[in-house]
User: Fold this.
Amino acid sequence: MAGDADVKRRIKSVENTRQITRTMELVATSKLKKATDRVHAARPYADALEEIVGGLYSPALSEKYPILRRPDEVKRAAVVLLTANRGLCGGFNSNLIKQARNLMEDLRGQGIETELHIAGKKGVAYYRFRGEEIVTEKVDVSDSPTGDDAEEIIAPVRDRFENGDVDAVYLVSSKFKSAMSTPPHTRHLLPITGDENASSADVYILSPSGDMILERILPAYIRNAVYTALVENAAAEQGARRSAMKSATDNAGDVLEHLTRTYNRARQAQITQEIAEIVGGSAALE
Amino acid sequence: MASLNVRVVSPDKTLFEGEAASVVAPAWDGQVGILPGHAPMLALIGSGALSVDRPGGGSDTFYVAGGVVKVERDTVTLLTEYAGHEPPSDVTVDFVEDVE
Assistant:
């Protein structure tokens, strides 16, 4: 029977698919574990750095360091979008892209020009397809991002800010709250907003001097913000992929059950029919 | 006896966290010793050995390169670009050269 063979082939195919999605789920789970460890390991440094920079900031310094400048009017803003290099992770990439698009629409609505800096193949592919200009792009960030990756992404943006080509920098990436919750998030990276309540630098012995410390620490601060975002993004990607692959595996199971039932019913119908034919035939002989 | 609360943090890990009787850190212009009751301080870190003396005697030595140390109310937070039990294999930290 032709129908039988068709159903059998489909069962085989869905079984193969389930095998693949289950493997991908397992791979994502093990990568997620490592990525989560990296997120936790990166937090203390980021927090401590933030505290120090917040405490050192003073308006007088912004005259001296271009990176601390606070433009009165924002004419042009840079949006740094971090996406994954790979797909098959549910709405992860599209959520990030949507967040960037909304942000850029918002900014344009306020009469601010925007420019894009993208890390991750998915984001690059989307904006290329849309024909939008991408100022800088980077598509070789691995599953375990390094400080050098972060530096490469942010260095051109930082230069543009210091030169006054852009007046604000936003960073769009996923926040890693848990493996299940990885909402896209926009961080206002530059200009740096000092914490006005922070303990003033006056009470500290500063060696060699506040200026020099800032000069060394600020680039590290900006780079680390991007590094943290990269690490969180990588973990969020694996979390999203695990969920997506889990539901794909579950769904394949449902489809299989349905197909097996259809197949069995068809087979049973055929057997019943054959018996009926034999019985009918022998009855005719008597 | 008063003791210091010490944390040595690099971007990818927390190398040390705990109590210490004293700390000798490689500041940008030479070693700096920190004892309990030290005035609030913020200093650039060069590169070299960092030794942490345990309250009960004995000490741990780490290698750090670049960063900043903050001392406040007997809490020492040392942020560094590199931290490990071995000196960095590639001594290309431009930080140190710049300061010198």
Observations:
- Chain B has one helix and seven strands.
- Chain B touches chain A at residues 7, 9-14, 27-29, 32, 39-44, 66-68, 70, 72, 77, 79, 81, 95, 98-99 (CB under 8 Å).
- The radius of gyration of chain B is 13 Å.
- Confidence is low (pLDDT under 50) at residues 93-100 of chain B.
